[in-house]
Specification:
The chain is 0% helix and 58% strand. With 139 residues, the chain is mostly beta strands. It is elongated, with a radius of gyration of 17 Å.
């Protein structure tokens, strides 16, 4: 059996597709995965999981652009909602964790605080909050 190595395109039976680099029969390097549900991930892959910098896009319009380790948000990243709100901050094991700032759709700061695994630890200067958790249910 011939192993995948170098640049290529692979389409699974469910309709999802990967376009990018392979090494030793595994997704490794830069690439673009498109799910059958129209989710997309562009970035750096290691052993078939997103690892390094990447951009994850959901079909309803949310995006995450930042660092990943072993398929989870890890390090600095920016999560954007379809309505224009965004969170810029640090992540750990897929959850907002550490310092982060949430912005309203008009760019005004909504919240500056420390986060603990997706939950705010303290309120911003005006004390307003629209949510007790942060992020998206997939990745």
């Amino acid at each position: 059996m011939v192993k995948k190595h170098g640049y290529g395109v692979y389409e699974w039976r469910d309709g999802s597709k990967y376009i990018g680099q392979w090494r030793a029969n595994a997704i490794n390097g830069h690439g673009h995965w498109i799910g059958r549900d129209e989710r997309e991930i562009r970035g750096t892959w290691q052993n078939a999981v997103i690892h390094g910098c990447g951009k994850y896009s959901w079909p309803e319009g949310c995006t995450f652009c930042g660092q990943y380790i072993d398929d989870q948000k890890q390090g600095f990243g920016i999560f954007k909602w379809k309505d224009g709100r965004r969170f810029e901050g640090f992540w750990h094991k897929g959850q907002a964790h550490g310092y982060g700032i949430t912005y309203k759709a008009n760019g005004e700061v909504q919240k500056k605080c420390m986060w603990d695994m997706g939950a705010p630890m303290s309120s911003n200067s005006n004390g307003n909050s629209n949510s007790n958790t942060l992020g998206h249910s997939n990745s």
